[in-house]
Amino acid sequence: MPNPRASALRQSPIRAMTQRCRELGGVNMGQGICDTPPPRLLLDAVPTALAAGHNTYSRYDGVAPLREALTDKLAAYNGLHYDPETEVLVTLGSTGAFAAVLGAHFEAGDALLLLEPYYGYHRNLAELAGLELRCVAIEGADGALDLAALEAAAAGARGIVVNSPNNPSGRILSPAELDAIAAVCARHDLLCIADEIYEYFLYDGRAHHSMATRPGMRERTFTLGGYSKTYSITGWRIGYCAAPAALAAPVGLVADLYTACAPTPLQHAVAAAIRDLPPDYYEELARSHQAQRDQFCAALKQAGLPPRVPQGAYYVLADVAALGCTTAAAAAQTLLEQAGIAAIPGSAFYTQGRGEHLLRFCFGKTQADLDRACERLAQWARAGS
Length: 385
Ligand SMILES: Cc1ncc(COP(=O)(O)O)c(C=O)c1O
What we know:
Elements lengths: L3 H4 L5 H12 L2 E2 L11 H12 L12 H15 L9 E5 H13 L5 E6 L3 H9 L3 E6 L9 H8 L4 E5 L11 H14 L2 E5 L25 E6 L11 E5 L2 H15 L4 H13 L2 H24 L4 E2 L6 E5 L8 H12 L1 E2 L1 E2 L12 E5 L4 H18 L1
Parallel strand pairs: 1-11, 3-4, 3-5, 5-6, 6-7
Antiparallel strand pairs: 2-8, 7-8, 9-10, 10-13, 12-13
The protein binds pyridoxal-5'-phosphate (PLP).
């Protein structure tokens, strides 16, 4: 018999929708695979790394050039200062970092706070680890983080996951909200796992604020990030965890047991890209995704599926009550069959039946796919009116 917690696992609705979309020849706006091309400089660095003989296991916490490039980036972009020898770990994607932090610092039965809507892997990995999940709305009744609920949920908990910019809502927590979370962490002595993988996907002039910069947070925060999204290399599996040495050391040991190391030649290529890509690469990334957000949100609105316009990341939750389905899974199925567009049921990101009127779309797509999706939405709306 498998571990009962593993027996409870189901294929992610995201992967299932991708499969169904392929069968029906639809436009896949579901999975966040980001199929825009990676930067040329990054791709060119791969054969160089292979030819230089970087083909064996690396140190379990990553090659020195990448740890050093990440350390410089964390200082320059995030305002965070770490030692590349002991406080910055390269991991198998930020997913590898998240799993290793749970493995190193959490025991079965510990309570973990998630801001809802949450990223499914956070919930599922926490459940697999036997943690007790406590969800708090990132958008309470007035659209702001529900601080009273957060305070109540924090009593006796071991940690909190803060994902800003947020997948799936695109919500960016304000500095004041981050400070309020910091105060809760201090009062209840919580560890904080800050998943900042969308740190460059910021719209309408917003800036990124790292959780670990907030008062008292450096000593209790694991800053997780990676290059899957920033460089459109979800298949490369290059992520990282930065934390004070005493917190980072056990994470590195656990990550070693889980995965030995991240792909060595790809670590070298990512190090070169972090070092050599100019600042406007990141500015253009935000600019082009903001344009795509505006185009897709306008198409959703026109089709009668009002979007919650995201502040960051590259997802949008849309209200699909107009489809007349009782569940989000049925709404996703209906939209795929009628309009040829795959989206993810909102229920994948919420507990207790919330999210049944929502679908999540990923607009981090090639311009051709985005145009096709907008055209299909318009056709579908015309056919229904
Ligand atoms: C919030 C969040 N964290 C982590 C990941 C996965 O990152 P990685 O590819 O670095 O494992 C995703 C991917 O969709 C995500 O949305």
